[in-house]
Task: inverse folding
């Protein structure tokens, strides 16, 4: 009888786990990490930490785009589309909201857009474009803010380009376009000094390997992946991959996603179907964390940890945008 009771208890426990309403799997990895996913849930900016949902205060109508953890503080960058077709940009620190558009606006310069964030220690950086409201011409300033203090990098005429910012060893790297130039007008500003990339290259983002800074993107002249080590000046092209949606390094391996596939050292390790695509991915200590949109033209966003479905949300309920993995 005692054995029968034990067997029944085990069966009940199994049924309770199997019938859970959350389709989640806290799949263990080789090293303990915190996995953050940011996006939107029920029309409110949100993030998930190790599958636990956090709705962001004053985030109704907003969606979260980027999350960074520094000195134990959680920083989230997001936005809200207003009824007058303008965008309001938001920052949450430990779930305390700041309206960046209102904070950074001045009578002489209005915020046109904010396109990126970086956090180093307790210093918070944003990059974007501002405009003098008294000037009708489409002339903007490419700027960044450090703890709310603005630095003008250059004059800009295209505020739709999504500039990115990265701060490494007190050096500020900003992807953007140079004004008053003839040919090589696209590249990266390093502490305000412009470095060009070849004509035909459009940079996507900045990544770091062993304290060395790389910019990467797509060479549309040759339909290939381009990346450059800004520390050594070495430029590389991968002709077997047509474009760079994301590029990163882990344990001396090079990972690239073109949106449809993920490559490790130029070999496909994950591939999507016609109706699915990759939204973001991180590789840390050989463990893969992937955000993928699946179903009929992306009806479900899914977090895969080492190819196991660990968290998902239907588009009627929300969306996932990016993923952050923090080593404990």
Result:
């Amino acid at each position: 009888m005692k054995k029968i009771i034990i067997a029944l208890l085990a069966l009940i426990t199994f049924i309770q786990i199997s019938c859970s309403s959350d389709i989640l799997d806290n799949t263990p990895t080789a090293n303990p990490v915190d996995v953050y996913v940011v996006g939107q849930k029920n029309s409110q900016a949100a993030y998930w930490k190790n599958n636990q949902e956090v709705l962001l205060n004053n985030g109704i109508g907003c969606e979260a785009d980027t999350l960074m953890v520094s000195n134990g503080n959680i920083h989230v960058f997001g936005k809200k589309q207003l009824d007058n077709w303008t965008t309001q940009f938001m920052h949450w620190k430990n779930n305390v909201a700041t309206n960046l558009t209102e904070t950074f606006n001045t009578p002489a310069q209005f915020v046109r857009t904010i396109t990126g964030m970086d956090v180093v220690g307790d210093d918070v950086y944003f990059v974007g474009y501002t405009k003098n409201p008294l000037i009708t011409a489409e002339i903007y300033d490419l700027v960044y803010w450090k703890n709310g203090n603005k630095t003008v990098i250059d004059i800009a005429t295209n505020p739709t380009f999504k500039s990115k910012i990265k701060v490494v060893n007190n050096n500020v790297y900003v992807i953007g376009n140079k004004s008053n130039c003839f040919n090589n007008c696209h590249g990266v500003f390093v502490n305000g000094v412009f470095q060009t990339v070849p004509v035909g290259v459009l940079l996507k983002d900045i990544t770091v390997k062993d304290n060395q800074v790389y910019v990467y993107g797509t060479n549309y002249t040759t339909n290939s992946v381009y990346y450059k080590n800004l520390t050594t000046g070495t430029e590389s092209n991968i002709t077997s991959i047509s474009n760079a949606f994301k590029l990163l390094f882990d344990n001396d391996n090079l990972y690239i996603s073109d949106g449809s596939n993920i490559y490790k050292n130029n070999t496909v390790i994950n591939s999507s179907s016609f109706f699915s695509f990759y939204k973001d991915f991180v590789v840390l200590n050989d463990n893969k964390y992937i955000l993928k949109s699946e179903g009929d033209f992306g009806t479900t966003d899914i977090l895969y940890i080492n190819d196991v479905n660990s968290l998902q949300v239907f588009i009627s309920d929300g969306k996932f945008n990016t993923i952050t993995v923090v080593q404990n």
The chain has a mean pLDDT of 90.
